[in-house]
Amino acid sequence: MSDSVFSLDDIDKIIEAEDPSFKNELSEIQKQSVEGTDAIESLKLEPEEDTESGKEDDEQPSKRKKLFLFLFKPILGVQSFVRLRWIRIKNRALMSIDRLSYFVRSELPDRIKYTWSQLRRAFAWLLKQWANFRAFNSTQKLAVAFMALALAASVFFISKTFDRNWLPTFAESLPHSLAQGASFVGVVHSKSELEDLFQVFPKVEYYVLLKKVIVNLQPSYGSGPNPMGAFQIFVGADSQDTAIEVKAREQQILDLVRRTLETFNYNEAASVEGKERMKIALREQINKILDQGRVFNIYFNNFILYSGN
Fold first, then answer.
1. Cα atoms found within 13 Å of the Cα of residue 156, Cβ hemisphere only
2. Rounded to whole angstroms, how far apart are CA atoms 43 and 306?
3. In this model, does residue 48 exceed pLDDT 80?
4. What is the pLDDT of residues 145-194, one digit of tens each?
5. Is the alpha carbon torsion for 133, 134, 139, 141 positive or negative?
6. Structural contact between residues 220 and 269, judged by C-beta atoms closer than 8 angstroms
7. Domain chopping of the chain, boundaries
8. Of 9, 26, 213, 252, which shows the fewest CB atoms inside 10 Å?
9. Angle at 298 between CA 297 and CA 303, to 5 degrees
10. Under CATH, what is the fold of the domain 197-306?
């Protein structure tokens, strides 16, 4: 069994012994196969190099295209805008020409015919009315003439009335401004330069003493959370009737005094300037509700503050 088994080396020796040229042919065929394989590999690699070079060639035109668009895109945009505007103007002009030609060819002759027919009818109506007028007797003719004159006179007077030309007018001699006859004209820059008319020409004041009010003030720096004040005021009225009204509406005025003083804080009430502002605010608010007369001044009879600390 072992004698019938041959190895590959034994087969090569037998072939070399029988035919020595066959081994040389096999070695040549092997070399050719190896060379063919190398050629195939080189062929496989060559297209990849071509594609890479092609990509580089494609990238260069794309870069040039981008640069061209970057440089000339505004010009192209203006050119396209001008072209579109020109097309619109051209289309509108053509449409206008078409409409005008259609009007001249179709509508204008019909309108001329219609207008001419209306004129002929109006002229015929006038001739008929003139014939009727000639057929009237003398009394009827005078009545028609009188009615025509009355109608013309009415139209004339109505038109003149609206124009205000036929009625006599009077020139107004009253001055519209005191600056026309003034020797000096000045400019007031602020209200602080002005003086109250009632203070410039003082009159006798009628005093009314109101009841005491207790008010919660607004907290401020240096006071506690709940500052308070007790106030009693004199009201200086311009007349006895005003003083009577103030006394009769005392409860309403006291409520107004509370609501007005509650808007001030503790520091304002403690300062001299704050007291003056309180007086001005009270005077203005009371004068707003009075039916007659006015209040000249406000005087504090009692003024007590509690800081709330």
1. 7
2. 109
3. no
4. 899 899 998 888 888 777 766 666 655 666 777 777 788 888 888 877 77
5. positive
6. no
7. 197-306
8. 9
9. 155
10. Tetrahydropterin Synthase; Chain A (3.30.479)
